[in-house]
Fold these 4 entries.
Entry 1:
Amino acid sequence: MRPNQLSESIDFLSPDIVIATAPYHHSLFRRNTEYDVPVITPANQTGIWVHNVADPLLVAIGSTQDISSLANLEATDELNPDTETFLLSDLLSVDIDLTDLTTTLDGQADYEAALNSNDIGGSYTHLTTNAPPDYRNNWGDLTVQGVVPGADGTGVEKTTSIALLTLHRNGLVSSRDIDAGKFGLEALDEIGPNRADTLRDAGFTSKEDVANTSPHELQSLDGFGRKTAQKSHASATALEDGNVHRTSDATIPRADPVFIDIETDGLSPTIVWLIGVLDSASDRYLTFTTRDPDAKGKAVENFMMWYTANASNRPIVAYHGQGFDFPVLKDHIQRHCSRYVDAWEDAWKFDPYWWAVKNNNAILPGRTNKLEEVAEGLGWETDDTGLTGGAVAHVMQRWLANPCEETEPDWEKHEAYCEDDVRSMAYIFDAIKDADRLDGIATTSDATESDDENVQTAQGTLSDF
């Protein structure tokens, strides 16, 4: 990661703590940023360190001997045994044997022995730098959660990426993974490391510099054809001015849309437990939900009952709907309320993400095309619940596996997360609808220009340094 990318990423993410995965990252951070936040390097940690500014608490340890200090911290009330504490180290490693297809937790025996030999009464989630953020598993009495992107336990080289982790009082961890290439000049469409070097050599050190020049001047640079010059300039302009820029005259629905977002128990869902709906005709927000694990089709059926009675002649709009919401709803309508199959098939469905990105009709101002990033780029002030889609799905999985008071979701918090997604999507839709056409942008590939860089556009996926 280049220094300007590091500084820009910290400015964008505003973390309370930085976890560095190698000792030299600590000095790199201090040398290239002005931010006064704690930097923890588990691989170089000596003794015990407690971050007691926020709740829940984060404790970093360097060896199993440090675990003995936890009992003393509980006794002196520095740690509250009645609330969740996150214990960070590199002492546990998830090892995956790709030949035998088995998984082991290296370091588990010594780690558990240290915990069991001390009078420790609190509840702990054990964070390891040797597993990725989407890894979470119970190993006996240990709840183990990964924190480093690319640490998959296979020995494969780790990726260069950033994970923004949010720690919750119930022990869950939600994560936004951001590709480091989404910062600096590499954040621009069509710009990879080689073209970023070309821009820097020509005096362009920031996205603002690129936005303030002309596509014609960019086209004079080595490796920049017409398409690259136009798209990189348009991308820089969108990121700098925080506006959508349309690149075609393709139309979008003008009738009053029905904006929806669904919450499920994962990417191959067994239940759609919540459908949030914003009816733009009345500006009413509606919630269709089920809190009964045995009534898995209730939310879908009630939504379709409402839609067919009140809005069947208006478009259903879902961000990334083509890739998730629409096929999932179709499947669950067929499973649970097949009498609405024809109505669903006849419904006018529109996906702003698909229209803008997949069909090249607009350039969006987010660092990526994820809903929250685009809305943020446009100035939307999100309702910060600290949740992500993955975290919500994990909570639902726990509840479905064992519906009880201990696993019951915070329904109101999850519903607020869904509502914010729906309203931010409507905000994006309105921005697309009101956007001006950007002159001179070709929406098809320029056949005369070769592109030998392995480039992800600035509107791809998000990603530790």
Note: The chain has a mean pLDDT of 87.
Entry 2:
Amino acid sequence: MTVRRGDTVELAIDRMAFGGKGIGRINGLVVFVAGAVPGDRITARIYRKKRDYAEAGIVEILSPSPDRVVPPCPYSGYCGGCRMQQVRYEKQLAFKHAHVVEAMERIGGLEHAPVRPVIPSSRTFGYRNKMEFSFSDRRWYLPHELDRRETEGGFALGLHVPGTFYKVLDVTACLLQREKGNEILREARELVRRSRVPVYGLRTHEGFWRFLTLRYSAALDEWMVNFVTSGERPDIVLPIARALDRKIDGIKTIVNNIHSGKAAVAVGQKEIVLTGDGTLTDRIGPFTFRISANSFFQTNSEGAETIYRQVAAYAGLNGTETVLDLYSGTGTIPIFLAGKARRITGIEINPGAVLDAERNCRENGIRNCRFLCGDMRKILPEIPFRPDVLIIDPPRAGMHKAVLAQVLALSPGKIVYVSCNPATLARDIGEMVRDYDLLEIQPVDMFPHTGHVEAVASLARRKRFPAQKRN
């Protein structure tokens, strides 16, 4: 049977792909199905056909998997955020573990890698401390909403449909943030609608309201609201900010970022503080961090603490070591380890992050951390010492091959690698095991109901024995 685009086929789903799509097969052809769960028997319609695989959408679930549950979110299956909400949480953890193991085998070439069971999130909902919602003048209506198009029009404030930049769902709540955040979301929507100032067109690049970003401090139970607009109009934004502040308790500060460019990023060229002081304070473990609207901070504070404690356990510091931290960001890992090390040096390319790191050290009374700002490829060869422990926490793309070569040349005794992408973790470790023993990998689930999984890997430099002299 030749499979073509538009065909309806019957599939038995037997695996979960990285990212959350179910996998079935027909005549040897792999078919990826969004929303399918291993154990499902379904009919699906093919909407994309390539030489080696196809993609399909569920038409009917003929027999549900025992691991299938009813998603509590009404936008599940349409929103791009939670792609595994229909899967029992314990099974999500099993799939994520399998993804790490498979990446190590297929990409890293390491069979039987020592991958521990995934540490679950303490919260499966309400765990995010930052949410970014997009305004749009072209609302994407759900099937049951189609009869409301004429009365409700194109206004939307919400989240994107997967794989699109202009399809925005109008959402009244997101279960990944605390309920107070949803109250702020709903009230902000009504205030903006009543302003009658046009929202931004993602295709026309015309309009005023662009994004609403909410940040939350679980430590102090306080919120930051950031309106991102295309221009500076305090006469429009300030009255709305004041009305929102009066209506909702718990808002510490409201800011307005002005972003006039076409790029769809919720970061402004200029920031105006409308109420409060423009910052939040949150904690990871015993340490406090001051966060501004555009600061990087882990979006799951409790999950970050779990990862940092694992980093500390693998580092095994006793107070005498020198530590080098690559991609040090705002200094969260160095600060977390500072009390157990003699000296920590962080390297970070973003000047703003380095300033935040230095400020965070001062505010936490940390004096044994310093930060170098610049390109890793230029700074690493100039490091005048061999660290006892090297911490690596790169972006999703992993380490640049030149940085990886420099890491191996530096030859630290221990390496602790923190990753948000099993594929690039496996690729980099596959190179590192030429000189290092992979002791253990500990996956951590920071983002339940999504396909993402973090992992912390422990490596130790392999001992080299001197060659024996021949008689």
Note: The two ends are 71 Å apart (CA to CA).
Entry 3:
Amino acid sequence: METTSATRPELRRELFEFSEWAADLRYASLPAWTLDRARLVLLDDLGAVLGAAGEAELEAYRGRYLGVGGRHEATVLAPGFVMTDRFGAAELNGMAGCWLEVDEGYRLATSHAGIYAIPALLAVAESEGLTARELLEGLVVGYEIAARFAHAWSFPPLAIHPHGAFSPVGAAVAVAKARGYSSSGLLRTIQTASAFAIASPYNHATGGALVRNVWTGAGARLGIMASELAMDGILGLPSSPLDVFGTALQGEWQEGALSNGLGENYAIESGYHKPYACCQYAHATIDALLELRARHEALEWAREVESIVVETHPKGLSLDVARPETTLGAKFSLPHAVAAGLAYGTGGPSAFTRASIEDPGVRALSDAVELRPIEEVKEWPEDRPSRITVRLRDGSEDTAYCATATGDPSRPLSRCQLVEKFVEVAGATVRPQGARGLADQILGMPEDLLVRDLVRLVKEAA
């Protein structure tokens, strides 16, 4: 429905109902499946944080930040495991968590709700002596609010990137729940965090602007701040969510999205896990090209390919930059993803490095890619299909099609696959055998485990 002043009473009612539900939620009342999903999201996103430790730009900023110093209360999850203040740890871990583009995401609306909540939660829980119980309660509730905000406001197509828009409120509510705020405290936190939303243009991702990787870190810092300001009476307005997401960001509000069905199911149950280190809009294409490539293992792709036609869904068509200039740009470039996938036989992190951007063979293949709209777009889970057709210089052609990408909730990665992904991705910081043991400990952690001890387990695994 159109966002107008008449929306305000209904919006306030829905946020009140959400806050009441969130305050009443208890670990013991959560279904075993939901808690298992929360642990898998924690594992996946923790791997993303650990995996980005060696990224040059992030490493430089981390060194600059830690050189200034801060109160030693939370750990930066990178080699050396330096402690700093909770705001800095949340920011640095939040930046790392989306850098490789392997973090978990919510599939039914555009949101990466896990990585919005987890860096702030880990920093606060470690600094304040909280347990896995509070951590997982906060994750489930923080994920829920970020996912519901993504449902509640529809922005003009491909205008707003969710990392900046929804990370402050996701982080703030997660922390507030972990700290045991009342319903009124949670409501004030939502209102205040909404006023911190970042105007995050989607084209900064496709354009490869590395500042996009900062939005989750900034959101984690702002979320902790909002949760604390709310307790000190430094508040937004009751209308702040509407003022920001409706008026300022021109979102169209969906009535009922914030409160309908609370507790009947949980948003964290509908997440996807990425097998490939790039924007999920490209994943069906990579599935298709890897199938096609497997049929032609002996082919010298850069020398023998004449043209590559990719038919894909509207969001995939937005990934149209053929010659990305940054690693982020490569992850949001369908021509690069196709070229590197054909050249290297993978959609993993090695396909999106600086070396891959500068590889002459990858560039030649990227220039041969043509993007076209596909006809077979249906309702979820077949709303992001892709077909790839490769024509060789000898005149032969081959085609492969994928209706739903691997990792989607309807085609989930297995538990074993997620553990192996964690081992591979976290390898920048954690040795393989240590990573496997750590994964088992995270997936089986008892509710009374102190988060400080969880961080200690990460350090020992490294």
Note: The longest helix spans residues 132-152.
Entry 4:
Amino acid sequence: MEVIHFYHINDLHSHFETWPKISRFLHEKRREHENRSQQVFIFDIGDHMDRVHPFTEATLGKCNVELLNEANVDFVTIGNNEGITLPFEALDDLYANADFQVLIGNLFYNDNTRPTWVKPYHIQETKEGTKIGFVGLTVYFSKFYQELGWRISEPLEELAKIVAQIKGKADVLVLLSHLGIHEDEEIARRFPEIDVIMGGHTHHIFEHGKIENQSLLACAGKHGNYIGHIQLVLEGHSIQSKTAKLIDINDIPQKNQDDKAIQYWQNKGEELLQQVVVTLPRTLPSNWQKETELSRLLAEGLKEWCKADAAILNCGLFLKDLHKGPVTKLDIHQLLPHPINPCTVWINGQELIEVIKQATEEKWMNWVLKGLGFRGKVMGSFLYAGIHIVDEDSYHKKFWMNGRPIDPDKEYKIATIDMFTFGPFFPEVFRAEKKEYDVAHMLRDIMEWQLYRTFS
């Protein structure tokens, strides 16, 4: 009888406050199983990094790779935070010093060759001679990868090709999937030969795994709150049983050195972001309830950056004041930590008026928002550049753009942020046929550019 252990994490999002416990636990479990002559493999299923943390921001994810190395991780796949929040060159170099294997079956250069640091799958033979095929796939954000200079293929189509290649070469087939729960379930239905699917992306939790068709699905939530453990029992290289469970991070004892490590990563990131961008002659306050000089600066800068007719932003994006005196990259990162990109949308005047009407609704002021790249707390009020609202009376408003009434039939180019094209905010923006994303720049890059132009 052969016993094989898998330990997996997913969607840490640079929540390093849980990492000391995770790393120590993984080292202890590896020693424990190997002392019993049991095989153990450790996995990260993507979105380990998130540029909301200053250390990740300052190193463009290199610090995350170092932490994975130190934890003695064996295999990883990437999530959208690795894939589409880094410039092309940064992702292409991210794993240069990795001690683990990166598995992504559906990522290519534009010439259809695979990056040298990627394998679509890897077949690992255990000490008992069992051959395990490990496959990795990441979420299909085709347009964003294309804008960055990558090509990403449809995951299930690519998986079919890989499974055909592995057929007959592996006794056990395991998928590292940063695709989300619905795709994982679909894969289990369509590919019964896959024995285990370790998931991520949708931050779901399977406390004891889930059997779908013949596959065992597993996922460990987010932010390092859980570590997943899968145990396979084999006889004659054939699986006899497969079980999954989650280890709650709160059940792992805290040690004195944990807080020191967490603080070191925070301090190191802040130290690396101390470059002064501009010196302000006055303090620029933020306010999620109303427009300020600071928020207006970004709205006007976004409009000009995108060469748009107007810009629309929400005040909840701004998380701190910028104080009089030197302003550093760290200050701007703390102001706008969101992995959110500028976006340009083409809509007609009537649609634009509807968007403005919706944006003036009181519900947004305290609307709690999580996900879609937003790292603040509430949406807050909306502000505009190039758009002026005139109250004729308590019931009627007129909408002007750049000194003229908005023409209902005219097409307008509107600069905004990418999350408004994804979520349930403005139907007119969501369904707009023409959208362009500036995935090479974060919103804070535009803020830095605008501050420098204004105050240098």
Note: The longest helix spans residues 19-35.
